[in-house]
Structures are given as C-alpha cells and as structure tokens.
Amino acid sequence: MTAGRHRTWVDGRWAEVPVASMGGESLVVPVVAALVFPDDRRDRILLQRRDKRDAVRGRREIPMGRWRAGETPEEALTREVEEETGLRVVAVEAPAVRHEAAPGRPFLALEPLTVTVGVAGAYPALHLCFACIAEGEPRALEGETADPEWVPVARLAGLLSSPEEFTGPALAILRTWLARR
Length: 181
What we know:
This protein has helices at about 75-85, 155-160, 170-180; strands at about 5-10, 15-20, 20, 25, 30-35, 45-50, 60, 65, 90, 95-100, 105-110, 115, 125-135, 145-150. By secondary structure, it is of the alpha+beta class. Strands 5, 8, 9, 12 and 13 form a five-stranded mixed beta sheet that branches. Strands 7-6-14 form a three-stranded antiparallel beta sheet.
C-alpha cells in the first residue's frame, strides 16, 4: 500500500482506493457520527444496517459520514442524518462553541465522543460522535442504509454482545456511550 492508497473490500474483492493525502502522506479523514434519539427521554436510539457493497454490508450501524470542508460540525451531522435516514435534526447535544482568534479567523471548540479507526494501517478516520434529537420516521436509502429502526436503549447492551453484528466504528461508539451513561 502506498501513501494516499488504501486496501478495502469492494464488490466482492480487495481493491486499492485513493485516500486523502497531502505531500505524499495519507491524512486522517474526519467523520461525523450520530446517536439519534426521537425525543429528550433517550429511551430509544436509531440503528440501521449498512447497505454499501463492502465487507461490512448488512451490519448494524448508526448514521455517519465524511465531514466536508466548509461545514460546521452541526451542518455535517444534520446533512448526514438527513441523507441516510430522512430525519430532520432539531437539537444537537454539546454543539460547538465559536471563538475568534482575531476578527474573521474563527475556530470551533467542541467535546464529542471520539473514535479513531484505521490505526493499524487501514482507512484512517476520526469519528466525532454527537447525540442529537431528530423528527420524522426513518427510511432506508438503497445502496447506503437499510432497515432503520428505533431500538429501546434497554436492549442495546444485549445487541452489542454480538460484535459481529455491528460495524467497527458503531460498536466502539455505542459501547463507549453506554459505559458513560
């Protein structure tokens, strides 16, 4: 594998695909992930199945995707949740706080749950996970997600006892979130 390339499972075979890079070095890709709840009670959480043609197709996951340049964390999270589920985010826990180092030079400070994947040489990604409340009925997005459902949080620990049922990032995020509750 060369800098800027990554081996991944695509269409039933291993393939090298481009990875973000600069100056010959592979870069860590920022990803937003969402713990989605239908209301403030937080007694149900959204789970879905991955429907992309890759090695983890059919596994449970939470909404997540790449954070695009120019988006705030809330914009990226809102876009990903809507794209994958059709739900409309109405509140984000611990939203970013804007500061300015100098006029016109803003930066954001935030404290999301953070999970790093690809530390052993695979696709390097930093998952920044935010809890949010969303309105509507979740729907699947063919080729992206399938079988969205509101799962009782009381059932979540039992589901997580079968790690092969989840994508790696979703498993790490959900286990960490449950442990912090």
